[in-house]
Amino acid sequence: MPRLILFNKPMNVLSQFTDRGSITARETLSDYIDVPRVYPAGRLDRDSEGLLLLTDDGKLQARIADPKFKLPKTYLVQVEGEPDDAAIQKLARGVELKDGLTRPARAEAIADPQLWPRDPPVRFRKSVPDHWLRITITEGRNRQVRRMTAAVGLPTLRLVRWSVGEWSLDSLKPGEWCNAAHK
């Protein structure tokens, strides 16, 4: 039976098992997961947090990571500024980025989701409000959600991937992982 692991990746952890690109040691998946022959299905930037799926099944890995399968990925995004209806509609229709128009996304303003504290904390500025969005995309361009929010005038302060397809973080705390079932 193929193995599938759900991992709540903390901020500043690389989405790989080794670190070959730095003079100073950085945390990697091997600091949290001691399971042989599993590999990330997709990526999550070092400065992003949340759900990362790992598997030992190449076909499942491709189904999760390859944009042609259009697997929805939902992010909770703390942005600088106040999102108005126009910004939300732009995100929903698709945003023009340097590498082309994004696919339409589901986007909505949400109340503070009361997540775990981030280390290091998000910078706070009294003069600039921050708000939360829930954004669901079906593609996976490099730093796509951050670039989309910036393009509509709402720079991302914190990015947490909450779900990928049928799998979500639920009660996993940062640094925790569990085995999961898959179809």
From TrEMBL:
GO cellular component annotations of the record: cytosol
Every Pseudouridine synthase RsuA/RluA-like domain range: 4-151
EC numbers for this chain: 5.4.99.-
Domain of life of the organism encoding this protein: Bacteria
One GO MF term: rRNA pseudouridine synthase activity
Enzyme class at the top of the EC tree: isomerase
GO biological process: enzyme-directed rRNA pseudouridine synthesis
SUPFAM superfamilies the record matches: Pseudouridine synthase
Record key words, sorted: Isomerase
Pfam families listed in its UniProt record: PseudoU_synth_2 (PF00849)
Family: Belongs to the pseudouridine synthase RsuA family.
NCBIfam families documented for this protein: pseudouridine synthase
Name of the protein: Pseudouridine synthase
